[in-house]
Specification:
2 helices, alpha+beta, 6-stranded mixed beta sheet
Length: 134
């Protein structure tokens, strides 16, 4: 696993770390759009995490798909928001437009994949994931 301290000009977080396990998995998809999805998921994880480690996991399933998950220890997803999380303007945040997850869903589905979100079993934070065919 590799760890980095998270911080950008717009989202400076000194108490948040990013942990990921680099994988060599080749997908034949639009690199820019898939990067946009990952960026959206990480930005949201950072936004809703005050402190702790955000984990990014990438794994190949049965040689026919790849699954990417972003797990954060943040506040979790409000139960009233969960059913419409990937729709336009779905947000309980005062920052952003509420379009990031809607756009991400469109990108993933256009590539033949699926995207989902759930609150973590331990009650701390949420996990966002997507799958893409190989």
């Amino acid at each position: 696993m590799n760890d980095i301290t998270v911080g950008t000009d717009s989202l400076k977080k000194e108490n948040v770390r990013l942990s990921y396990n680099p994988q060599d998995i080749i997908i034949h998809e639009d690199k820019g759009r898939i990067s946009q999805v990952i960026s959206n998921l990480l930005t949201n994880a950072i936004k809703f995490t005050k402190q702790g480690t955000i984990f990014v996991n990438v794994e190949k399933k049965n040689n026919n798909s790849v699954i990417v998950c972003v797990k954060d220890p943040g506040q979790g997803i409000d139960s009233s928001l969960l059913p419409r999380l990937f729709t336009k303007f779905a947000s309980k945040s005062y920052k952003g437009t509420g379009l990031g997850l809607f756009i991400s869903k469109g990108i993933i589905e256009a590539h033949g994949g699926k995207i989902w979100a759930e609150n973590n079993i331990d009650g701390k934070g949420a996990t966002f994931g997507f799958s893409l065919p190989l």
